[in-house]
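Action item from last meeting closed. Structure (234 res):
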């Protein structure tokens, strides 16, 4: 199924999922993420560095549960401390950062959308941010200079659809995350552990791939299942 057709289909599917069902599945996902993060390798001895996202009010996994745990781990997991980084939608024109896309006719670099990730100071501050932009997302405020990709151990990644066999992911088409994965590799010559989070309705059998598409290392699904694609990172 072509991506455009699949996105349209998934938009209708997501509209049909009740808020209660999304909350139930999101809590299941949070429980499994807590286990993965607690047992994951850490690049430093002080804290795990986790990239996450602030979910839309409907139609995708609600990240409030995992964020609450990251900022306030349970009494039995006090040793798991985390630094949390959250995305801001911006453009290369606004940030002045390297342009990774070209004009197809001229081959010249062009300005384009991209993400910057900013460290969240506290859950209370994050909750005070107001939805904004095309996707009505809560976002960190603009920083100067705009930060380059921070080093992360794990990135929790949203998507519209996922494939459990090869870890393929499809977003909404703007290319924010694929651009960030490439940008991250340019800075760090590596990439974090990529964990896709999906409602069970977002699992599909096929996603048409393009050269820039990146694959998840692991996908956590709302039925409570964990699917490792890159077992070397488990």
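Sequence:
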């Amino acid at each position: 199924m072509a991506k455009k057709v699949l996105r349209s289909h998934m938009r209708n599917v997501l509209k049909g999922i009740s808020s209660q069902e999304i909350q139930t599945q999101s809590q299941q996902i949070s429980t499994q993420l807590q286990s993965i993060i607690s047992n994951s390798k850490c690049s430093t001895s002080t804290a795990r560095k986790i990239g996450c996202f602030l979910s839309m009010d409907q139609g995708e996994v609600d990240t409030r549960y995992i964020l609450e745990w990251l900022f306030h781990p349970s009494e039995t997991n006090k040793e798991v401390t985390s630094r949390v980084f959250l995305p801001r939608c911006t453009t290369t024109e606004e940030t002045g950062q390297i342009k990774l896309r070209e004009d197809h006719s001229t081959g010249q670099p062009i300005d384009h959308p991209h993400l910057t990730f900013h460290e969240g100071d506290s859950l209370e501050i994050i909750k005070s941010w107001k939805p904004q932009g095309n996707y009505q997302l809560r976002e960190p405020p603009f920083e100067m200079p705009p930060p380059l990709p921070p080093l992360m151990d794990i990135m929790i990644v949203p998507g519209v659809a996922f494939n459990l066999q090869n870890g393929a992911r499809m977003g909404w088409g703007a290319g924010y995350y694929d651009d960030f994965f490439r940008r991250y590799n340019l800075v760090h010559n590596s990439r974090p552990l990529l964990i896709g989070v999906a409602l069970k309705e977002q699992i599909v059998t096929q996603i048409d791939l393009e050269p820039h598409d990146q694959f998840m290392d692991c996908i956590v699904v709302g039925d409570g299942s964990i699917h490792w694609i890159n077992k070397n990172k488990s």
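Note appended to the action item: The first strand starts at residue 48 and ends at 51.
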